[in-house]
Amino acid sequence: MNASPYTVALIIPTGIGAAIGGYAGDALPVARAMSSICDHLITHPNVLNGAQLYWPIPNALYVEGYALDQFAQGNWGLAPVQNNRIGLILDRGIEEDLRIRQLQAAEATRATLGLTLTDYVLTDAPLEVELRLTDSGSSWGALANPDSLLRAAERLITQAKATAIAVVARFPDDVDQLTLQHYRQGKGVDPLSGAEAVISHLIVRQFQIPCAHAPALSPLPLDPSISPRSSAEEIGYTFLPCALVGLSRAPQLTPTPSPRSLWSEDVKALVIPASACGGSAILSWAQTDTLIIAVENNRTQLQVRPEPLGIKALRVSSYLEALGVLVAHRQGVNLACFDPQFPTLPRLSESL
Predict the structure, then answer these.
(1) At residue 197, what are phi and psi to the nearest 5 degrees?
(2) What's the gap between Cα 218 and its chain centre?
(3) Phi first, then psi: what are they for 244, rounded to 5°?
(4) Would you state the pLDDT for residue 184?
(5) Where in the chain are all domains bearing CATH 3.40.50?
(6) Which H or E run contains 132?
(7) What topology does CATH give the domain 7-80+254-338?
(8) For residues 55 and 39, what is the distance between their CA atoms, to the nearest angstrom?
């Protein structure tokens, strides 16, 4: 009898300044390596999106953050698909030249990558994105006109039969310059990512459909000292290609089990930053037998560690060490065997 598929979830929360995964697709190498030692890798756009850069990982499931929370709670399953029909929403607040750049990127993915896009729509009002930072240093945001976003998504779903939604919203150019400079130097928090999460959450929660977002921004002045981790966002006019590639095969979200769908209990291991353990999905899997691996050197702006939350986690120093743990765990090897102080077999007490 064949063992059940070995499924791993990789979570690096957005907007918290993660040393790995807090920039422009810089967690992709981790995802690539991890996907080679499991049957299914469940992760989210913050891990896989690299602006105009992306990497095809056939066994990776691209799952938006709100959907990932619902999946971890057991409310939704993930149904793999071969090809989604992607509807594109463009914020009416995007200037014409910048809007054309987004459309050219979408057309390029159709002609060059063979993706299936349906119609595109403009929101009936500018979305007016607002950016904020919390006291802890994490980023978040809000929309002045969220209903306009939802009306646009409903049109694409009902009229164009879209099965996934990509959104491009106009983000403000007047980002705090010190925050932006730190981010470009690979030292700070992505000031946009928290607001991006709000946008995709709205659509996924309302319509139970895959969604991802790409910001529209004016090009930044050339800076030859940019960090390698931030460089993917410096090489073009749009961040849309990676989102469209991810959505093209993003699993559908289903409340009903089927032979091909994956469910929360199928996840054998979860890999997270050691200081960012407070998310909904992490807390849900902490109530199960899922092996939780907490990576120490992926530092974040948070200090939410597993032990105060009652989460039983195996701490490792790096993602390289986490990969070794996953190999052993998949093979059913007792992890204690790798400790030089291997314990003796205890005798069970005879008292009742």
Answers:
(1) -60, -40
(2) 24
(3) -65, -40
(4) 77
(5) 7-80+254-338, 86-249
(6) strand 129-133
(7) Rossmann fold (3.40.50)
(8) 17
Rounded distance between C-alpha atoms, residue 330 and residue 142, angstroms: 41
What amino acid is encoded at 2 in this protein?
N
pLDDT for residue 132: 78
Q: Which two tokens stand for residue 88?
A: 């594109």
What are the contacts of 145-152 at 24+ separation with CB within 8 A?
Answer: 146/202, 148/92, 148/123, 148/124, 149/89, 149/123, 149/199, 149/202, 149/203, 150/202, 150/203, 150/206, 151/123, 151/124, 152/89, 152/121, 152/122, 152/123, 152/124
Model confidence pLDDT, tens digit, residues 338-350: 989 888 888 998 8
Other CB atoms closer than 10 Å to residue 245's CB: what's the count?
A: 23
CATH number of 86-249: 3.40.50
Q: What is the pLDDT of residue 1?
A: 39
Q: What tokens were used for 144?
A: 């002045």
User: Looking at the chain, how many residues does it have?
Assistant: 352
Phi, psi for 132 (deg, rounded to 5): -145, 160
Report residue 35 CA to chain centroid gap: 15
* Residues 6 or more apart whose Cβ sits within 8 Å of residue 224: none
Say what the pLDDT of residue 176 is. 65
C-alpha 134/C-alpha 281 separation (Å) is: 21
Q: What is the mean pLDDT of each run of 10 residues along the chain (352 residues)?
A: 83 92 93 98 96 93 97 97 97 96 97 97 95 74 94 98 97 74 75 83 97 90 85 87 97 93 97 96 97 97 93 97 98 92 88 71
> Mapped to the 3 state alphabet, what secondary structure does 75-111 carry?
CCEEECCCCCCEEEEECCCCCHHHHHHHHHHHHHHHH
Q: How many CA atoms lie within 13 Å of 156's alpha carbon, on the beta-carbon side? A: 30
- What is the number of helices (H) and of strands (E) in the chain? 10, 14
Amino acid at site 239: F
Relative to beta strand 7-10, strand 40-43 is parallel
241-242-247 Cα angle (round to 5): 100
CB 245 within 8 A of CB 84: no
Query: How far is the C-alpha of 150 from the C-alpha of 30, rounded, in Å?
Result: 34
Residue type present at position 117: L
